């Protein structure tokens, strides 16, 4: 896994052609073809979906892939594919449901991307089962390969950067989950991937500071 730190950049105006050009000389034509396919399938699978900010949902997996490429210089095509597809099972039905969905990803893209997506996917469950589900999810990630952990941290990096666009309850919930669950994942690869850990840590601190300031302002206005 090739990792080097780099500067963050805006990804909003980066379309498919520019995305593909970034990778043109970084991987074989066969692997680039798979990445292109994942890009198209992710965009189609999240069609019509929006994030809480009103931004189209596809910008999230696309930005995840771009963070890997631009900020950490990670050109592992299977990690990029997994980034693009990481919410494809949980938040769309493009691959079907259950284990069949991961089998379909393996069929289309290979075993490794399917494994990464499986580790990044929270199973659908009843509300009263979410705590148990989440415990199993984070334990599996903790025991999983470093690449899956990097993908989870990049996912959370983008979520933390856009957290200010969410309502205060979601901000609080995401920050609590980050400190209680994701931080342990980050610490487990801090020595192996210090640049990823550092970026994650900084984004968490910034998001926490913004939340604390927002909560303090609201509390003061209610006096």
How far is the N terminus from the C terminus?
A: 53 Å
Q: What class do helices, strands and sheet pairing give?
A: mainly alpha
Radius of gyration in whole Å, from Cα? 17 Å
SSE order: HHHHHHHHHH
Give the uncertain stretches in residue-range form: 2-9
Tell me the major beta sheet: none
Helix content: 55-70%
Strand percentage lies at under 5%
Total E-strand runs: 0
- Can you tell me the overall shape? globular
Task: Output the number of helix runs.
Answer: 10
Mean pLDDT: 92
Could you characterize the architecture of this molecule?
The protein contains 10 helices and no strands. By secondary structure, it is an all-alpha fold. The radius of gyration is 17 Å and the shape is globular. The N and C termini lie far apart (53 Å).
Structure characteristics:
single chain; 223 residues; mainly alpha; 10 helices; 66% helix; globular; disordered N terminus
